[in-house]
Design brief:
By secondary structure, the chain is of the alpha/beta class. The protein contains 18 helices and 27 strands. The strands form six sheets. The chain has a seven-stranded mixed beta sheet with strand order 5-6-4-1-2-3-23, sandwiched between helices. Strands 21-9-8-7-19-20-22 form a seven-stranded mixed beta sheet, with helices on both faces. The protein has a five-stranded mixed beta sheet with strand order 13-12-11-10-14.
Protein backbone atom coordinates (compact mmCIF):
# COMPACT_ATOMS: atom_id res chain seq x y z
CA UNK A 1 0.00 0.00 0.00
CA UNK A 2 1.31 3.46 -0.93
CA UNK A 3 1.15 6.02 1.89
CA UNK A 4 2.71 9.47 1.61
CA UNK A 5 3.05 12.48 3.88
CA UNK A 6 4.00 16.14 3.54
CA UNK A 7 6.56 17.75 5.86
CA UNK A 8 6.03 21.51 5.79
CA UNK A 9 8.23 24.29 7.18
CA UNK A 10 6.30 27.57 7.39
CA UNK A 11 9.03 30.21 7.39
CA UNK A 12 8.76 33.98 7.50
CA UNK A 13 10.44 34.33 4.12
CA UNK A 14 8.82 31.31 2.44
CA UNK A 15 7.55 27.75 2.76
CA UNK A 16 9.56 24.55 2.25
CA UNK A 17 8.20 21.02 1.89
CA UNK A 18 9.14 17.36 1.49
CA UNK A 19 7.02 14.57 0.03
CA UNK A 20 7.68 11.59 2.32
CA UNK A 21 7.12 7.85 1.75
CA UNK A 22 5.63 6.73 5.06
CA UNK A 23 5.92 3.04 4.16
CA UNK A 24 9.68 3.28 3.54
CA UNK A 25 10.88 4.72 6.81
CA UNK A 26 10.27 8.35 5.91
CA UNK A 27 12.19 8.32 2.64
CA UNK A 28 12.18 11.75 0.96
CA UNK A 29 10.71 11.55 -2.54
CA UNK A 30 10.87 15.21 -3.58
CA UNK A 31 11.26 18.76 -2.28
CA UNK A 32 9.29 21.88 -3.17
CA UNK A 33 9.77 25.46 -1.95
CA UNK A 34 8.23 28.87 -2.46
CA UNK A 35 10.48 31.75 -3.48
CA UNK A 36 8.69 34.17 -1.14
CA UNK A 37 6.09 34.36 1.61
CA UNK A 38 2.58 34.71 0.18
CA UNK A 39 1.36 37.50 2.46
CA UNK A 40 2.23 41.15 1.76
CA UNK A 41 5.14 42.44 3.80
CA UNK A 42 8.85 41.97 4.40
CA UNK A 43 8.69 40.57 7.94
CA UNK A 44 6.49 38.87 10.49
CA UNK A 45 4.97 42.10 11.84
CA UNK A 46 3.95 43.14 8.32
CA UNK A 47 2.21 39.77 7.92
CA UNK A 48 0.38 40.24 11.22
CA UNK A 49 -0.64 43.79 10.35
CA UNK A 50 -2.03 42.69 6.98
CA UNK A 51 -3.88 39.81 8.64
CA UNK A 52 -5.57 42.08 11.16
CA UNK A 53 -6.38 44.98 8.82
CA UNK A 54 -7.48 43.01 5.77
CA UNK A 55 -9.15 40.24 7.78
CA UNK A 56 -8.28 36.67 8.65
CA UNK A 57 -10.57 35.33 5.91
CA UNK A 58 -8.45 37.05 3.24
CA UNK A 59 -5.14 36.15 4.85
CA UNK A 60 -6.05 32.52 5.41
CA UNK A 61 -7.22 32.02 1.82
CA UNK A 62 -3.85 33.34 0.60
CA UNK A 63 -1.97 31.00 2.96
CA UNK A 64 -4.05 27.95 2.03
CA UNK A 65 -3.81 28.56 -1.71
CA UNK A 66 -0.03 28.76 -1.40
CA UNK A 67 0.18 25.56 0.64
CA UNK A 68 -2.04 23.77 -1.91
CA UNK A 69 -0.02 25.12 -4.86
CA UNK A 70 3.18 23.99 -3.17
CA UNK A 71 1.86 20.48 -2.52
CA UNK A 72 0.69 20.17 -6.15
CA UNK A 73 4.30 20.61 -7.31
CA UNK A 74 4.99 17.13 -5.94
CA UNK A 75 2.80 15.61 -8.68
CA UNK A 76 -0.89 14.77 -9.14
CA UNK A 77 -0.38 10.99 -8.84
CA UNK A 78 1.58 11.37 -5.61
CA UNK A 79 -0.98 13.71 -4.04
CA UNK A 80 -3.64 10.97 -4.21
CA UNK A 81 -1.68 8.97 -1.63
CA UNK A 82 -1.07 11.77 0.92
CA UNK A 83 -2.81 10.97 4.21
CA UNK A 84 -0.67 12.84 6.71
CA UNK A 85 0.86 16.34 6.98
CA UNK A 86 3.24 17.68 9.65
CA UNK A 87 4.08 21.37 9.97
CA UNK A 88 6.62 23.38 11.90
CA UNK A 89 7.32 27.09 12.32
CA UNK A 90 7.06 29.98 14.75
CA UNK A 91 3.84 30.63 16.72
CA UNK A 92 2.65 33.33 14.34
CA UNK A 93 3.08 31.28 11.17
CA UNK A 94 1.40 28.22 12.71
CA UNK A 95 -1.48 30.37 13.95
CA UNK A 96 -1.95 31.89 10.49
CA UNK A 97 -1.96 28.38 9.03
CA UNK A 98 -4.59 27.17 11.50
CA UNK A 99 -6.52 30.47 11.36
CA UNK A 100 -6.63 30.84 15.13
CA UNK A 101 -6.22 33.89 17.39
CA UNK A 102 -3.06 35.91 16.70
CA UNK A 103 -3.68 39.10 18.66
CA UNK A 104 -2.05 37.58 21.75
CA UNK A 105 1.13 37.43 19.64
CA UNK A 106 0.70 40.89 18.16
CA UNK A 107 0.19 42.88 21.37
CA UNK A 108 2.27 42.90 24.52
CA UNK A 109 0.65 43.30 27.93
CA UNK A 110 -2.12 41.35 29.57
CA UNK A 111 -4.21 44.45 30.24
CA UNK A 112 -4.30 45.32 26.55
CA UNK A 113 -5.34 41.80 25.64
CA UNK A 114 -8.04 41.84 28.33
CA UNK A 115 -9.37 45.13 26.97
CA UNK A 116 -9.55 43.62 23.50
CA UNK A 117 -11.29 40.52 24.84
CA UNK A 118 -8.51 38.25 23.62
CA UNK A 119 -8.43 34.71 24.98
CA UNK A 120 -5.13 32.95 24.35
CA UNK A 121 -5.63 29.73 22.37
CA UNK A 122 -3.92 26.54 23.45
CA UNK A 123 -0.68 26.01 21.58
CA UNK A 124 -0.02 22.51 22.86
CA UNK A 125 0.75 19.79 20.32
CA UNK A 126 -2.35 18.43 18.63
CA UNK A 127 -3.76 17.02 15.40
CA UNK A 128 -6.51 18.18 13.06
CA UNK A 129 -7.86 17.09 9.70
CA UNK A 130 -6.96 18.83 6.45
CA UNK A 131 -10.51 19.73 5.47
CA UNK A 132 -11.15 21.59 8.73
CA UNK A 133 -8.12 23.81 8.12
CA UNK A 134 -9.03 24.50 4.49
CA UNK A 135 -6.48 22.39 2.63
CA UNK A 136 -7.99 21.58 -0.76
CA UNK A 137 -5.20 19.74 -2.58
CA UNK A 138 -5.27 16.54 -0.51
CA UNK A 139 -7.75 14.16 1.10
CA UNK A 140 -9.95 16.22 3.43
CA UNK A 141 -9.59 13.54 6.12
CA UNK A 142 -5.77 13.57 6.05
CA UNK A 143 -4.25 14.01 9.50
CA UNK A 144 -2.42 17.32 10.15
CA UNK A 145 0.13 17.27 13.00
CA UNK A 146 0.71 20.62 14.68
CA UNK A 147 3.60 20.71 17.18
CA UNK A 148 3.60 22.62 20.48
CA UNK A 149 5.09 25.90 21.57
CA UNK A 150 7.19 26.16 24.74
CA UNK A 151 5.32 29.35 25.55
CA UNK A 152 3.07 31.37 23.32
CA UNK A 153 6.06 33.44 22.13
CA UNK A 154 8.49 30.52 21.83
CA UNK A 155 7.33 28.25 19.06
CA UNK A 156 7.85 24.89 17.45
CA UNK A 157 10.74 26.22 15.34
CA UNK A 158 12.66 27.16 18.49
CA UNK A 159 11.78 23.79 20.00
CA UNK A 160 13.00 22.09 16.83
CA UNK A 161 16.43 23.73 16.91
CA UNK A 162 16.75 23.02 20.65
CA UNK A 163 15.95 19.32 20.21
CA UNK A 164 17.93 18.84 16.99
CA UNK A 165 20.99 20.59 18.41
CA UNK A 166 21.12 18.43 21.55
CA UNK A 167 21.95 21.56 23.53
CA UNK A 168 19.89 20.43 26.52
CA UNK A 169 22.43 17.66 27.06
CA UNK A 170 25.34 20.10 27.24
CA UNK A 171 26.77 20.98 30.63
CA UNK A 172 28.09 24.35 29.43
CA UNK A 173 26.38 27.57 28.45
CA UNK A 174 25.08 27.43 24.87
CA UNK A 175 23.51 29.82 22.39
CA UNK A 176 21.33 28.84 19.42
CA UNK A 177 19.95 30.99 16.61
CA UNK A 178 17.76 30.26 13.61
CA UNK A 179 18.96 32.84 11.07
CA UNK A 180 16.16 34.23 8.97
CA UNK A 181 13.88 37.21 8.53
CA UNK A 182 12.81 36.70 12.14
CA UNK A 183 15.94 35.54 13.98
CA UNK A 184 14.84 33.24 16.80
CA UNK A 185 17.56 32.91 19.44
CA UNK A 186 18.04 31.16 22.75
CA UNK A 187 20.61 31.23 25.54
CA UNK A 188 20.74 28.10 27.70
CA UNK A 189 22.25 28.70 31.14
CA UNK A 190 22.13 26.40 34.19
CA UNK A 191 19.08 24.50 32.99
CA UNK A 192 17.08 27.56 31.96
CA UNK A 193 16.35 28.82 28.47
CA UNK A 194 16.29 32.55 27.80
CA UNK A 195 14.87 33.38 24.40
CA UNK A 196 14.33 36.37 22.17
CA UNK A 197 13.34 37.16 18.62
CA UNK A 198 15.04 39.87 16.56
CA UNK A 199 13.33 41.22 13.46
CA UNK A 200 16.50 40.94 11.41
CA UNK A 201 14.71 41.68 8.17
CA UNK A 202 14.70 39.94 4.81
CA UNK A 203 18.39 40.45 3.96
CA UNK A 204 19.26 37.28 5.91
CA UNK A 205 17.16 35.37 3.37
CA UNK A 206 18.62 37.25 0.41
CA UNK A 207 15.58 39.50 0.06
CA UNK A 208 15.50 43.33 -0.06
CA UNK A 209 18.86 42.87 -1.81
CA UNK A 210 19.11 43.92 -5.48
CA UNK A 211 19.96 40.43 -6.75
CA UNK A 212 18.78 38.59 -3.63
CA UNK A 213 17.20 35.13 -3.81
CA UNK A 214 16.33 32.38 -1.34
CA UNK A 215 18.69 29.41 -0.99
CA UNK A 216 17.97 27.43 -4.15
CA UNK A 217 19.93 26.07 -7.13
CA UNK A 218 21.83 28.89 -8.83
CA UNK A 219 22.20 31.08 -5.74
CA UNK A 220 25.62 32.47 -4.81
CA UNK A 221 25.93 31.21 -1.23
CA UNK A 222 29.52 32.12 -0.36
CA UNK A 223 32.59 34.03 -1.54
CA UNK A 224 36.21 33.39 -0.55
CA UNK A 225 39.60 34.94 -1.16
CA UNK A 226 42.05 32.09 -1.78
CA UNK A 227 44.88 33.59 -3.81
CA UNK A 228 47.06 36.70 -4.11
CA UNK A 229 45.44 37.92 -7.33
CA UNK A 230 42.56 39.74 -5.60
CA UNK A 231 39.94 37.49 -7.18
CA UNK A 232 36.99 36.19 -5.15
CA UNK A 233 35.83 32.57 -5.44
CA UNK A 234 32.07 32.59 -6.04
CA UNK A 235 30.32 29.53 -4.58
CA UNK A 236 27.00 28.58 -6.20
CA UNK A 237 24.40 26.06 -5.00
CA UNK A 238 23.98 23.14 -7.40
CA UNK A 239 20.83 21.10 -8.02
CA UNK A 240 21.44 19.21 -4.75
CA UNK A 241 21.90 22.50 -2.85
CA UNK A 242 25.63 21.82 -2.44
CA UNK A 243 27.88 24.92 -2.83
CA UNK A 244 30.45 24.62 -5.63
CA UNK A 245 33.18 27.04 -6.77
CA UNK A 246 31.78 28.27 -10.10
CA UNK A 247 33.90 31.33 -10.95
CA UNK A 248 36.71 33.58 -9.72
CA UNK A 249 35.78 37.25 -9.98
CA UNK A 250 37.51 40.60 -9.56
CA UNK A 251 35.12 42.43 -7.17
CA UNK A 252 36.19 45.81 -8.56
CA UNK A 253 36.02 45.24 -12.34
CA UNK A 254 33.85 42.13 -12.58
CA UNK A 255 36.46 40.25 -14.62
CA UNK A 256 35.67 36.52 -14.43
CA UNK A 257 37.74 33.37 -14.58
CA UNK A 258 35.21 30.59 -15.16
CA UNK A 259 35.61 27.37 -13.19
CA UNK A 260 32.30 25.64 -13.90
CA UNK A 261 29.70 26.12 -16.60
CA UNK A 262 27.09 27.00 -14.02
CA UNK A 263 24.83 30.05 -14.21
CA UNK A 264 24.24 32.17 -11.09
CA UNK A 265 20.70 33.48 -10.62
CA UNK A 266 21.28 35.73 -7.62
CA UNK A 267 22.79 35.95 -4.16
CA UNK A 268 21.35 34.36 -1.04
CA UNK A 269 21.66 35.57 2.55
CA UNK A 270 24.91 33.76 3.24
CA UNK A 271 26.38 35.20 0.06
CA UNK A 272 25.45 38.62 1.38
CA UNK A 273 27.22 37.91 4.68
CA UNK A 274 30.29 36.59 2.86
CA UNK A 275 30.42 39.59 0.54
CA UNK A 276 30.27 41.91 3.54
CA UNK A 277 32.94 39.98 5.46
CA UNK A 278 35.34 39.68 2.51
CA UNK A 279 34.70 43.30 1.54
CA UNK A 280 35.56 44.49 5.05
CA UNK A 281 38.59 42.20 5.28
CA UNK A 282 40.01 43.21 1.89
CA UNK A 283 39.21 46.92 2.14
CA UNK A 284 36.77 46.82 -0.78
CA UNK A 285 34.17 47.94 1.79
CA UNK A 286 34.86 50.64 4.35
CA UNK A 287 31.59 51.21 6.12
CA UNK A 288 29.31 52.60 4.96
CA UNK A 289 30.96 52.89 1.52
CA UNK A 290 32.11 50.52 -1.22
CA UNK A 291 35.57 51.52 -2.45
CA UNK A 292 35.13 50.84 -6.16
CA UNK A 293 34.64 53.33 -9.03
CA UNK A 294 30.95 52.45 -9.44
CA UNK A 295 30.33 51.80 -5.71
CA UNK A 296 29.47 48.16 -6.40
CA UNK A 297 31.01 44.83 -5.40
CA UNK A 298 31.06 42.73 -8.57
CA UNK A 299 30.15 39.04 -8.47
CA UNK A 300 29.71 36.48 -11.26
CA UNK A 301 27.26 36.67 -14.18
CA UNK A 302 26.70 40.40 -13.82
CA UNK A 303 25.40 40.15 -10.24
CA UNK A 304 26.53 42.94 -7.95
CA UNK A 305 26.25 44.15 -4.37
CA UNK A 306 25.53 47.87 -3.81
CA UNK A 307 25.90 50.38 -0.97
CA UNK A 308 22.14 50.11 -0.48
CA UNK A 309 22.63 46.37 -0.04
CA UNK A 310 25.34 47.12 2.53
CA UNK A 311 22.79 49.19 4.45
CA UNK A 312 20.15 46.44 4.31
CA UNK A 313 22.60 43.75 5.38
CA UNK A 314 23.96 45.94 8.17
CA UNK A 315 20.49 46.44 9.64
CA UNK A 316 19.99 42.67 9.77
CA UNK A 317 23.42 41.94 11.23
CA UNK A 318 23.02 44.75 13.75
CA UNK A 319 19.67 43.38 14.95
CA UNK A 320 21.15 39.91 15.45
CA UNK A 321 24.20 41.15 17.39
CA UNK A 322 21.99 43.46 19.46
CA UNK A 323 19.73 40.50 20.26
CA UNK A 324 22.59 38.21 21.26
CA UNK A 325 24.18 40.81 23.49
CA UNK A 326 20.84 41.76 25.05
CA UNK A 327 20.35 38.14 26.14
CA UNK A 328 23.89 38.03 27.55
CA UNK A 329 23.44 41.33 29.42
CA UNK A 330 19.95 40.59 30.77
CA UNK A 331 20.96 37.12 32.02
CA UNK A 332 24.05 38.59 33.66
CA UNK A 333 26.82 36.52 32.11
CA UNK A 334 29.94 37.46 30.15
CA UNK A 335 30.56 36.94 26.43
CA UNK A 336 33.32 34.50 27.28
CA UNK A 337 30.87 32.33 29.26
CA UNK A 338 29.26 31.10 26.03
CA UNK A 339 31.19 28.03 24.98
CA UNK A 340 29.02 26.59 22.20
CA UNK A 341 27.05 28.19 19.35
CA UNK A 342 24.41 26.37 17.27
CA UNK A 343 23.48 27.91 13.91
CA UNK A 344 20.22 26.85 12.23
CA UNK A 345 18.46 27.76 8.99
CA UNK A 346 19.89 28.32 5.53
CA UNK A 347 22.04 31.26 6.58
CA UNK A 348 23.21 29.35 9.64
CA UNK A 349 24.24 26.42 7.44
CA UNK A 350 26.07 27.95 4.48
CA UNK A 351 27.79 30.92 6.11
CA UNK A 352 31.38 30.53 7.25
CA UNK A 353 31.31 31.01 11.06
CA UNK A 354 34.51 33.06 10.91
CA UNK A 355 32.82 35.45 8.48
CA UNK A 356 29.77 35.45 10.75
CA UNK A 357 32.02 36.60 13.61
CA UNK A 358 33.35 39.47 11.49
CA UNK A 359 29.76 40.51 10.74
CA UNK A 360 28.52 40.19 14.32
CA UNK A 361 26.20 37.25 13.70
CA UNK A 362 27.69 34.96 16.34
CA UNK A 363 29.45 35.84 19.64
CA UNK A 364 33.11 36.77 19.40
CA UNK A 365 34.31 34.39 22.14
CA UNK A 366 33.46 30.76 21.33
CA UNK A 367 34.99 27.31 21.66
CA UNK A 368 32.68 25.33 19.36
CA UNK A 369 30.25 26.09 16.52
CA UNK A 370 27.75 23.61 15.04
CA UNK A 371 25.80 24.30 11.83
CA UNK A 372 22.52 22.39 11.85
CA UNK A 373 20.57 23.04 8.64
CA UNK A 374 16.82 23.66 8.43
CA UNK A 375 15.83 22.17 11.79
CA UNK A 376 12.20 23.21 11.35
CA UNK A 377 11.77 21.14 8.18
CA UNK A 378 13.75 18.29 9.76
CA UNK A 379 11.39 18.33 12.75
CA UNK A 380 8.32 18.22 10.49
CA UNK A 381 9.90 15.21 8.76
CA UNK A 382 10.50 13.52 12.11
CA UNK A 383 6.89 14.16 13.16
CA UNK A 384 5.77 12.22 10.10
CA UNK A 385 8.27 9.39 10.47
CA UNK A 386 7.91 8.69 14.18
CA UNK A 387 4.54 8.62 15.97
CA UNK A 388 6.25 9.33 19.30
CA UNK A 389 7.83 12.62 18.21
CA UNK A 390 4.81 14.83 18.98
CA UNK A 391 4.69 13.52 22.56
CA UNK A 392 8.45 13.97 22.84
CA UNK A 393 8.22 17.59 21.70
CA UNK A 394 5.43 18.29 24.18
CA UNK A 395 7.43 16.67 26.98
CA UNK A 396 10.47 18.81 26.21
CA UNK A 397 8.29 21.93 25.92
CA UNK A 398 6.76 21.21 29.34
CA UNK A 399 10.13 20.54 30.96
CA UNK A 400 11.94 23.69 29.89
CA UNK A 401 11.84 26.63 32.24
CA UNK A 402 11.60 29.35 29.62
CA UNK A 403 12.09 33.07 29.96
CA UNK A 404 11.21 35.17 26.94
CA UNK A 405 12.79 38.61 26.68
CA UNK A 406 10.77 40.98 24.52
CA UNK A 407 13.28 43.07 22.58
CA UNK A 408 10.61 45.60 21.62
CA UNK A 409 10.74 48.17 24.40
CA UNK A 410 13.82 46.63 26.02
CA UNK A 411 16.25 49.44 26.88
CA UNK A 412 19.37 47.31 26.41
CA UNK A 413 18.27 46.19 22.94
CA UNK A 414 17.31 49.73 21.93
CA UNK A 415 20.68 51.15 23.04
CA UNK A 416 22.53 48.32 21.32
CA UNK A 417 20.61 48.61 18.06
CA UNK A 418 21.13 52.37 17.82
CA UNK A 419 24.89 51.78 18.07
CA UNK A 420 24.71 48.95 15.52
CA UNK A 421 23.00 51.23 13.01
CA UNK A 422 25.63 53.91 13.66
CA UNK A 423 28.36 51.32 13.03
CA UNK A 424 26.91 49.72 9.87
CA UNK A 425 25.14 52.66 8.27
CA UNK A 426 27.25 55.61 9.38
CA UNK A 427 30.70 54.09 9.78
CA UNK A 428 31.08 54.67 13.52
CA UNK A 429 34.61 53.48 14.50
CA UNK A 430 34.67 50.43 16.76
CA UNK A 431 36.60 52.38 19.40
CA UNK A 432 33.80 54.94 19.64
CA UNK A 433 31.22 52.13 19.58
CA UNK A 434 32.84 50.49 22.61
CA UNK A 435 33.19 53.78 24.47
CA UNK A 436 29.50 54.47 24.04
CA UNK A 437 28.39 50.97 24.93
CA UNK A 438 30.34 51.15 28.19
CA UNK A 439 28.51 54.39 28.90
CA UNK A 440 25.25 52.43 28.73
CA UNK A 441 26.54 50.01 31.34
CA UNK A 442 27.00 47.19 28.81
CA UNK A 443 30.26 45.29 28.38
CA UNK A 444 32.27 46.31 25.32
CA UNK A 445 32.77 43.91 22.44
CA UNK A 446 35.70 41.57 23.15
CA UNK A 447 38.35 40.72 20.61
CA UNK A 448 37.46 37.90 18.22
CA UNK A 449 38.52 34.45 19.41
CA UNK A 450 38.43 31.94 16.55
CA UNK A 451 36.48 28.82 17.57
CA UNK A 452 38.70 25.76 17.97
CA UNK A 453 35.97 23.47 16.60
CA UNK A 454 33.57 24.13 13.72
CA UNK A 455 31.24 21.31 12.64
CA UNK A 456 28.80 21.49 9.74
CA UNK A 457 26.51 18.60 10.61
CA UNK A 458 24.80 18.66 7.18
CA UNK A 459 26.02 19.35 3.65
CA UNK A 460 23.18 21.74 2.94
CA UNK A 461 20.35 23.38 4.86
CA UNK A 462 17.99 20.80 3.32
CA UNK A 463 20.31 17.76 3.52
CA UNK A 464 18.22 15.53 1.27
CA UNK A 465 15.89 16.65 -1.50
CA UNK A 466 14.87 13.32 -3.07
CA UNK A 467 14.43 12.77 -6.80
CA UNK A 468 13.19 16.25 -7.65
CA UNK A 469 13.46 19.86 -6.50
CA UNK A 470 10.62 22.22 -7.43
CA UNK A 471 10.19 25.94 -6.92
CA UNK A 472 6.91 27.88 -6.78
CA UNK A 473 7.72 31.17 -8.49
CA UNK A 474 4.33 32.95 -8.34
CA UNK A 475 3.22 32.71 -4.75
CA UNK A 476 0.01 33.73 -3.01
CA UNK A 477 -2.91 35.41 -4.74
CA UNK A 478 -3.80 38.56 -6.64
CA UNK A 479 -5.77 41.30 -4.90
CA UNK A 480 -8.05 43.59 -6.87
CA UNK A 481 -9.57 47.02 -6.37
CA UNK A 482 -11.95 49.38 -8.20
CA UNK A 483 -11.97 52.73 -6.44
CA UNK A 484 -14.67 55.32 -6.96
CA UNK A 485 -13.18 58.52 -8.30
CA UNK A 486 -10.05 56.87 -9.77
CA UNK A 487 -9.08 58.59 -13.02
CA UNK A 488 -6.66 55.86 -14.13
CA UNK A 489 -3.56 58.07 -13.95
CA UNK A 490 -1.40 55.04 -13.09
CA UNK A 491 0.74 56.83 -10.51
CA UNK A 492 0.12 54.07 -7.94
CA UNK A 493 1.48 51.50 -10.38
CA UNK A 494 4.49 53.56 -11.45
CA UNK A 495 5.46 54.36 -7.86
CA UNK A 496 5.22 50.78 -6.54
CA UNK A 497 8.81 49.99 -5.40
CA UNK A 498 8.34 46.22 -5.86
CA UNK A 499 6.43 46.41 -9.19
CA UNK A 500 3.64 44.46 -7.48
CA UNK A 501 0.81 46.62 -8.84
CA UNK A 502 -0.66 46.92 -12.33
CA UNK A 503 -3.69 48.76 -13.66
CA UNK A 504 -6.07 47.89 -16.48
CA UNK A 505 -6.21 51.09 -18.52
CA UNK A 506 -9.69 50.41 -19.87
CA UNK A 507 -11.46 49.46 -16.63
CA UNK A 508 -9.07 51.28 -14.21
CA UNK A 509 -9.07 48.12 -12.10
CA UNK A 510 -5.97 47.65 -9.96
CA UNK A 511 -4.27 44.29 -9.42
CA UNK A 512 -1.70 43.64 -6.67
CA UNK A 513 0.38 40.47 -6.30
CA UNK A 514 0.32 39.58 -2.59
CA UNK A 515 3.78 37.97 -2.62
CA UNK A 516 5.54 40.96 -4.17
CA UNK A 517 3.73 43.65 -2.17
CA UNK A 518 5.43 45.12 0.91
CA UNK A 519 2.01 45.60 2.46
CA UNK A 520 1.15 47.94 5.28
CA UNK A 521 4.82 48.75 5.91
CA UNK A 522 4.92 50.50 2.53
CA UNK A 523 1.54 51.55 1.09
CA UNK A 524 3.31 53.82 -1.41
CA UNK A 525 0.35 53.15 -3.72
CA UNK A 526 -2.10 54.64 -1.23
CA UNK A 527 0.11 57.54 -0.16
CA UNK A 528 0.94 58.58 -3.73
CA UNK A 529 -2.63 58.53 -5.04
CA UNK A 530 -3.17 62.16 -6.12
CA UNK A 531 -6.94 61.94 -5.58
CA UNK A 532 -6.66 59.98 -2.30
CA UNK A 533 -9.23 57.42 -3.43
CA UNK A 534 -6.98 54.34 -3.18
CA UNK A 535 -7.36 52.34 0.06
CA UNK A 536 -5.07 49.34 0.50
CA UNK A 537 -7.29 47.63 3.07
CA UNK A 538 -10.17 47.51 0.57
CA UNK A 539 -8.33 45.31 -1.93
CA UNK A 540 -10.13 42.00 -2.44
CA UNK A 541 -9.12 38.54 -3.55
CA UNK A 542 -11.07 36.38 -5.97
CA UNK A 543 -11.50 32.63 -5.84
Amino acid sequence: MVSYGIALDLGTSGFRSHLIDLEKGGKIISTAVTVRHPLPGANIMDHLHFWMTSGSAVGHKIIMKTVDDLIRLHGAENIKHINKVAICGNPIQLSLFENIEVRDLAFAGENRLKTLGVVRPSRRGHTRVAGDIGMMSINSEAEVIIPPAIRHEIGADALAMIIRSGMLDKKQTCMVTDYGTNAEMGLYVDGELYSGSAAAGPAMEGQSIKYGVLAAPGAISDVNITGDDGLWDNMVLNDKLIPLAAARVDPVTGREVRVLDYKAKGITGTGVVSSMAMGLKSGVITLPEINTPDRKVRLMDGIWFSEKDVQEAGKAMGAIRAGHRTLVHEVGIKDSDIGVMYMAGASGTYVDPLKAQICGMIPRQLDEVYQLGNTSLMMAHELLSNDKTLDKMQSVADSISANHIMFAGNKTFEDMYVLEIAYWAEGMPMEMYNDMIKGYGIAELPEIKVPSKVVRTVKSDIPEIGRGFYSLEEVGMKMYGNFKGCNGCGKCSRDCPEKALTQDKSTKELCVRSDLCLGTACKACEMNCPLKVYHFKDLEIRI
